[in-house]
Design a protein that fits this description.
By secondary structure, this protein is an all-alpha fold. The chain has one domain. Helix 4 packs antiparallel against helix 6. It is elongated and about 50 Å long. About 30% of the residues are buried.
Length: about 160
């Protein structure tokens, strides 16, 4: 089933990746609502951009950054998958899984190393809880993105 994705032209895979990313971000929102820190991860980005404490960061800016990053990550997944397919010579479940692991590490690593330490208004305990909440949300995002992308691609193939 995964090998059939190779029949979908790369120019078509990017819009499919965007559509799957929309679904994945909405799924991520549902999952974040059930974590200890809720919407704190998107507020971290707004805190860094505005210099305001996380709890006082503009919620609209947090949402905008969250959704734009989610869409961009969907496109990044498509790009990484195309690169992996080119390097491996075939698109397989292993290629998709490996790409997902690389993207997960980048998503979590970037958040923990770049915006989270720069956000203001979080003590060490809350910072740690926010990192865990983000790791859970990022995993949920990929668990929705990948099947969504495969399913939408199979509709086109």
């Amino acid at each position: 089933m995964v090998s059939e994705l190779s029949m979908v032209a790369p120019v078509v895979r990017f819009p499919i990746g965007l559509a799957a990313a929309v679904i994945a971000v909405l799924g991520m929102d549902i999952l974040m609502a059930h974590t200890t820190e809720g919407t704190t991860p998107p507020s971290v980005a707004a805190s860094v951009l505005t210099g305001r404490p996380v709890d006082d960061a503009p919620s609209r800016l947090a949402s905008a950054v969250h959704y734009l990053a989610g869409l961009g990550t969907g496109l990044l997944f498509v790009y990484f998958l195309l690169v992996a397919e080119e390097l491996m010579g075939v698109l397989s479940a292993t290629t998709v899984g490996g790409t997902a692991v690389v993207l997960y590490v980048l998503m979590v690593g970037f958040f923990i190393l770049i915006p989270l330490p720069r956000a203001t208004g979080l003590d060490d305990t809350r910072r740690s809880q926010t990192a865990i909440a983000w790791a859970i949300a990022a995993a949920g995002y990929l668990l929705v993105l990948i099947p969504g992308m495969i399913g939408l691609s199979l509709l086109v193939a």
